[in-house]
Amino acid sequence: MYPTALTQLARANPFSAPLFSLQRAEELQQTPAAGPATRRLAAAATAEGDSCEFGSQKYLLLCGFGGIVSCGLTHTAVVPLDLVKCRLQVCEPYKSIGNGFRLTVREDGARGLAKGWAPTFIGYSMQGLCKFGFYEVFKIFYSDLMGEENTYLWRTSLYLAASASAEFFADIALAPMEACKVRIQTKPGYANTLRECAPKMYAEEGVWAFYKGVVPLWMRQIPYTMMKFACFERTVELLYKYAVPKPRSECSKSEQLVVTFTAGYIAGVFCAIVSHPADSVVSVLNKESGSTASQVLKKLGPRGVWKGLVARIIMIGTLTALQWFIYDSVKVYFRLPRPPPPEMPESLKKKLGLTE
To answer: Using only C-alpha atoms, what is the Rg of the chain?
Structure first.
C-alpha cells in the first residue's frame, strides 16, 4: 500500500494553486460516477505488477540508478556541443555554433570535439544519482512533515522544495568534475585528459580549485532543476489535454514515451533560459585561476552572460528530453510503482463542506 500523502502527490499539476484544486474537486463532484475507479498510470508506465513498494529502499536505489543512466549518458553524448558552447562563452575567436565547430576541428581535429568526456560522464552520473534519488527522498520527507491535507493543497511547493534540496547536494557531487571539464575544454594546452588535469589543478590551487565554482553551480542548477520538474509535469498534462487525441490511460507505452520526450524538450528550453547567466559565470570561473563569481559577473556584463544561449538551448533541450525519456524507461523496465493521480483527502472535503 502506498503512503497516502505521497499517493496524492503523484503527477500533480505543479502549477496548481489550492483554489484551483478546490474548484476542480467541486467540478468532479458534479460528474456522475463512471463505474469503479481504475488506476491511471504516469507517462511510460506499464500495467504489470510493481516490483517493490513505493518509497522503499529498493525503489529509491533504482530511482538513483535511473538518474545515473539518464544524466551520465546524455551529458556525455552532447560533449561536442557542450565544448563549443563553453568556448563561445569564454573564447574570443568563437562567434557562432558553426564557427565554433570549424575552429575546434581545425585546431584539434575531430577527436578534439570529445575533450572532457571523462569528467563529464563521471560528474553528471554522480549528479544524476543525487538529483533523482534525493528528489524522491526529500519528497517523502517533506510530505511526512506537511501531513496529508497540506501535501495535497501545497503540492507545487513540495515539488519545488524537494527538487531544490536534491540539487543542492547534486551540485556538490558535480563540482570537482565540472571544474576539470571546463578547464580541459576552454584552456588550450592545459591538459587533454582527466588524469592530467586533476593533479595539475590540485598542485596549483589545492582542493579549492574543485569547489570554487559550487556557488555559481547552485545558482545555475537549482533554478534549472526546479523548472525541469515543474515545467515537465505541467507540459505533460497540457499535452494530454490538448494535443493527444485520447486519454493517457488508453495510450500505448510507446505513445506515452513520445509525450515524455516532447514534454522534456519543452521543459529543457525553459531550463536553459533561466540558468544560462549562471552557466556563463561557471564557465569563465573554472577557466581562470584566482577569479571570483562577482568579478566574472562584472567582467561579462549584462550582454556577456547571454553569449552561447542558442547552443545551450539546443543542448539542454535535447538533454532534458532524453533524460526524462531514459528515466521513465528505467522505471518501466524495473516495474517501479506509479501512484495514481492526487485526490483530495476525505478529511479536507468534510472541512470544506464538499461531502456530507
So the answer is: 22
Residue 4: pLDDT above 60? no
Contact 128, 101 (CB under 8 A): no
Distance, CA of 312 to CA of 89 (rounded, Å): 10
HSE-up (13 A, CA, CB side) for residue 190:
23
Residues 150-169 pLDDT 10s: 988 887 788 889 999 999 99
Sole residue written with cell 502549477 = 15
Taking the CB of residue 227, how many other CB atoms lie within 10 A of it?
22
Q: Band of the pLDDT at 8, cuts 50, 70, 90? A: very low
Question: What are 166's three cell numbers?
Answer: 536534491
Global pTM reads 0.72
d(CA 37, CA 48): 18
Q: Write down the residue that cell numbers 506515452 correspond to.
A: 256
Q: Scan for cell 566574472, then name that residue.
A: 296
Helical (H) or strand (E) element with 18: helix 18-29
Q: From CA 180, how far away is CA 194, in angstroms rounded?
A: 7
Confidence of residue 134 (pLDDT cuts 50, 70, 90): very high
Among candidates 147, 89, 92, 80, which has minimal Cα distance to 116? 80
One-letter amino acid of 217: L
Cα distance between residue 312 and residue 175, in whole Å: 19
Rounded to 10 deg, the angle between the 214-238 and 309-333 helix axes is 70
Name, in order, each residue with C-beta under 8 angstroms of 26's C-beta and a sequence gap of 6 or more. Answer: 354
Read off the amino acid at residue 248.
Answer: R
Q: Residue 335: left if φ>0, alpha if ψ -120 to 50, beta else—which one?
A: left
